[in-house]
Amino acid sequence: MRTRSVRWRRGSWVAASSVVLFANTGLAQEQSAGELEEVVVTGVRAAQQAAIDIKRDSLQIVDAISAEDIGKLPDVTISDSLQRIPGIQIRRDAGEGSQISVRGLPQVSTLLNGEQFLGANSITTVQPNFTDVPSQLFAGANVYKTATSSLISSGLTGTVDLRTRRPFDLPQGLTASAAVEGTYGDGAEELDPQGNLLVAWNNDRFGALVSVAYSNVNLANYYSGMQGDQGWSGRPTEGGNWPGDANGDVNGDGDADDVIVSYQGHTAFNRFTERDRIGLNASFQARITDAVQLTADAFYTDQEQYVRTAGMAAEDKWQRWEWFTPLSSRDSGAMVDVSNDPAVVDLRELVLVDQFLLDTRRLKSFSQVARTDAKSQNFNLELSFDNGGKFTGSARAILADAEQNIVNSYADIDLSNGSQWGIQNNYYPGGTQNPYPNGYAGFPQITVDYRGEHVRFSGIPDIVNNLDAYSIGALSSENNSDREADMAAFRLDGSYEFTEKFALDAGVRYSERETTQLGYDYLAPFYAGAASNGSGCLVKWKATDVILSGGGIDGACTAGDAGGFYTALGRMPLSSFGNNVIRVTDYGDAQGVPPVYVLDPEAMDDPLAFHNGLFPGNVKVKNPGNSFGVDVDQTTAYLQGRLNGGDDVPYSANIGLRMVKTKLNVVQNNVGAPQPYGAANADAGDVVTDREFNDYLPSLNFTFDLSDSVKLRMGYSKTMTLLDLEQWGGALTPSYAISNAEGGRFVIVGANSNGNPELDPWRSKNFDGSIEWYVNDQTMLAAALFHIEVDSFIERGTVPMALPDQDGVVRRSVNVLTNVQGEGGTLEGVELSAKHAFSELPGIWSNFGVDANYTYSPSDSGRTDIGGGKLPFPSNSKHQTNFVLWFESDRLQARIAHNYRSKRAEAFNQIWGTEGLTVYQSSTSYIDASVSYDITPSFTAYLQGLNLTNEYENYYFQWESQKAYQFGYERRFIAGVRGRF
Questions:
Q1: Among 775, 656, 784, 772, which residue's Cα sits nearest to residue 705?
Q2: Residue 328 and residue 456: Cα distance in Å, rounded?
Q3: What pLDDT does residue 797 have?
Q4: Model pLDDT, residue 614
Q5: Angle at CA of residue 113, ends 112 and 117, nearest 5°
Q6: Residue 597 lies in a domain
Q7: What is the structure's pLDDT at 246?
Q8: What is the distance between the alpha carbons of residues 598 and 263, in angstroms, rounded to a whole number?
Q9: Among 513, 508, 604, 526, which residue's Cα sits nearest to residue 566?
Q10: What is the pLDDT of residue 68?
Q11: What pairing do the DSSP bridges indicate for beta strands 445-449 and 564-565?
Q12: CA distance 960 to 940
């Protein structure tokens, strides 16, 4: 048995020292001040000035971050950097920024140096996920809030253009910069290596650049609350068989006609995420003639990730919903129709519960590992022409491919003696056996209290301290996937300047993208000699309650003898795993949870090898409901006029039209007959759908110079953004659980329906305006208004559906999580931003500056909640603020940053598909800080801190008192040195 400890990984540090991340600034060999002013950003003040310049000079509404912005805060991923921009909201994965939304919507297009980017963690999704993309590879990023016709691939509410460095961006000669860092989290308690390196050279005719980013980090986060996803929540009536209930009045309010919120389980666990991440950016440029320039870029990412989870759970094992006594409850005032007959209305009041006394059937510990290997390659070849005349043009070719492979392993470890669900006398080739001889009897009375700031458990029995009481209950490797994508594009662009006041831009582009997803499980053969098929029955859930009787499915493999059918898993004490047993003691902020023994998740890092070591011969079996292929071919053409004029009020404008012809080829799988022992339904053949649609997307952008320092901008555009590809290609994926109350039958407990090739893409009309006051080079005030009308949108919701159990017989209706096409909705709001350097103040105060913004974005999805109020778009926060206070002197630089976002809707129609019942995430605030000191002009030491207040995220069902679960993230620190040559 082992415990977790702090480890100094010497080998990783050696690797980091030799392959290090490129630094966020680079000073070249000594150049003149005039040259450096154009190409090098050195310091917080200059970074703010660069962002102001980009915004002021743009033809549209845009916000930008520079390399110093990326490096001066502890921005591990580009998402962490982008959250500082007005209107950008991010989601976190293991504490690091991952997915982003712009102005409340996740349908964001991502470009790399102005062309489409294919990321390994967003192969099938539109919303970018940048956990595998190091921020240090970028010179900056522009976020376009309004579209132009020449912006070939634009998102619904915004487009992110990531800008890498190129050799001609740097001074002539040799440029080199490197850094080595150590990172430490107070949850993972491990010292991890990071580093960076950039080397570039150019002589004004030829140039080459290579930058590398490497990190190996261990991140800790914690979960407590409801077990499972929203499908694990219910609302049984008071008429059920509740513990200790004599008169049917379960909550003691004087009647027996309520429905009561119930969870199938309550849990607390820790989750340690290890990310081994490397990124590479290479660029070559050549001025072939004075008019012709060649640019070639390669961008590569490779991430190996392990998400290791371990903890405990108290549950009822899907035997009943009425398995607790509500110690603290209140009436919600909301009425719920409990009738499954559309012609009948049976309204009951929903009762909220925030303290549960559990009649615990199953107390268990568990371990999980999710291994993800993600790689992407993006190549660009561009030839541009500019001889100083009226015509400029370019030809550009893009090639990209990406793959993401996810494989999981799960281990449930029971503490009961098996009598609670009837497995004390399992039958095996050697006779009957109790797989849990040392477990507890009866039903432990455990209290779970959600009323405080954090979940509190009490009454967990002392048997958790006895290693001999733990036995493996189930092992599986399921919900695995292989995703692959290939993309190719070719485009021609040209501009002709007829006069100083009018120019015309035109271009054409053709692109192909092929995407496949294979969902699969690993199944092991059991009892080859005694199985009806001679080779062994294939079993997904290697469990003590899986009896190889065929599950009522005609022709299914069975295994047994005259004494009965065999059980899949026999007695497997946890102690038999020796040094791969650890004791979990850290549950974050969850209270009252004692240490428990678990199988070390790290022992399952290679899931296939782990399962083959216990059950030889595992085979990869396709899950047709989670497998699909989508090909997207697009032909785009645009024409855009650029004009300027005005005597009293100078103006500039671009007006254009973009035509996009989209061809879809969607290959889905028909989900066939049920298969036994947890296996996915059979593949009943392919369904191929071909679709074609055209979009004509006008755009107008006007900028008026009201004075030398004040600009007024107005914009209008139509946008079209593709759906997540799974929303077109996915099929119905049922979920089953074993019901011992029904003789060990595999019963349907829910389903996920993802794909519909007839769904429309996202379309919207966008109206924008902004006024910007450029007080000086380092001070700007801006206010922007936006109004977005979404014509059609896709949202996730649950609907009740009658589905068969695994034996093919329909006995019940369950909640199916599916795509629902809305009627449209509106999103509008205002963005206020200010950047100011206090240069006019005396003394030390002149070294300070601020960068602040506020976004107000109310939205209306067109749906109403259970109380009749308007529901917002999912993932959109009505209020968001960013505030950065910075200091810069000759050698010392420091920043502290605060990010706040108000509550947001997570999912609609929850708890048995109750119309309008919504899961919300509470508001969050994150504080980061950094300080650096220039020891010499070429050598800097720095310290950074992330999530300094140990923020956590709360989720609740509609009412804040009906808490669902809580995620907690660790505080992290980064210390490093940077050299510039």
A1: 772
A2: 14
A3: 60
A4: 97
A5: 15
A6: no
A7: 58
A8: 24
A9: 526
A10: 61
A11: unpaired
A12: 47
Residue 453 within any structural domain of the chain: no
pLDDT of residue 40: 39
CA distance 130 to 137: 12
- Tally of CB atoms within 10 A around 579: 9
How far is it, in rounded angstroms, from Cα 71 to Cα 21?
11
729: Cα separation from own chain's centroid: 20
> CA angle, 972 as apex, 970 and 975 as ends, to 5°?
170
Closest CA to 315 of 354, 245, 350, 366: 366
- Residues 6+ positions from 181 with CB-CB distance below 8 Å: 16, 21, 193, 194, 195, 196, 974, 975, 976
Amino acid at 780: M
Predicted pLDDT of residue 862: 81
CATH of the domain at 673: 2.40.170.20
* Residue listed under structure tokens 């340690």: 272
* Secondary structure in 3-state letters for 623-685: CHHHCEEEEEEEEEEEEEEEEEECCCCCEEEEEEEEEEEEEEEEEEEEECCCCCCCCCCCEEE
Burial class of residue 512 in the structure, from the number of CB atoms within 10 Å of its CB (0-12 exposed, 13-18 middle, 19+ buried): middle
CA distance 307 to 223: 13
Task: HSE, CB side, 13 Å, CA atoms: give it for residue 410.
Answer: 15
Question: Would you state the structure tokens that stand for residue 249, as one six-digit string?
Answer: 């009045």
What letter represents residue 414's amino acid?
A: D
> How far apart (Å, rounded) are the C-alpha atoms in residues 150 and 719?
13
Q: What is the pLDDT of residue 31?
A: 35
Q: Of 133, 231, 102, 240, which Cα lies nearest the Cα of 766?
A: 102
**Residue 878: which domain range?**
10-228+264-323+360-409+482-519+625-980
- Looking at the DSSP assignment, which residues form a beta bridge with residue 378? 299, 400
> Of 519, 536, 815, which Cα lies nearest the Cα of 671?
519
Domain membership of residue 386 (yes or no) is yes
Spans of the chain, pLDDT less than 50 = 1-41, 69
Cα 460 from Cα 633, distance rounded (Å): 58
- Distance between CA 268 and CA 585 in Å, rounded? 11
Q: Name the amino acid, one letter, at 692.
A: E
**CA-closest candidate to residue 236, choices 227, 225, 245:** 245
| Cα distance between residue 419 and residue 466, in whole Å | 19
Question: What sign does the CA torsion over 70, 71, 73, 75 have?
Answer: positive
* Res 913: pLDDT: 82
Structure tokens at 518: 């294979």
How much is the pLDDT for 796? 63
Q: Which token pair is 345?
A: 């209305």
How many Å apart are CA 205 and CA 289, to the nearest integer? Answer: 9
Q: For residue 416, with 0-12 CB atoms within 10 Å meaning exposed, 13-18 middle and 19 or more buried, which class applies?
A: buried
**pLDDT score at 32:** 32
Under 8 Å between Cβ of 834 and 780? yes
Give this prediction's pTM: 0.89
Give the integer Cα–Cα distance in Å for 693 and 634: 10
pLDDT of residue 1: 46
What domain count does the chain have? Answer: 1
The burial of 391, by beta-carbon neighbours within 10 Å (0-12 exposed, 13-18 middle, 19 or more buried), is given as: exposed
| Residues 540/403/137/722 CA torsion (nearest 10 deg) | -100
CA distance 764 to 717: 8
The predicted structure's pLDDT at residue 34: 32
Q: Is residue 441 in some structural domain?
A: no
C-beta separation of 29 from 607 below 8 A: no
Burial tier of 860 (Cβ tally within 10 Å: 0-12, 13-18, 19+): middle
Q: In what helix (H) or strand (E) does residue 729 lie, and over which residues does it extend? A: helix 725-729
In this structure, are strands 159-164 and 109-112 parallel, antiparallel, or unpaired?
Answer: parallel
Cβ-in-10-Å burial (0-12, 13-18, 19+) of 30 comes to exposed
Q: How many CA atoms lie within 13 A of 329 on its CB side?
A: 23
Q: Residues 729, 513: contact at Cβ < 8 Å?
A: no
Strands 265-287 and 391-414: unpaired
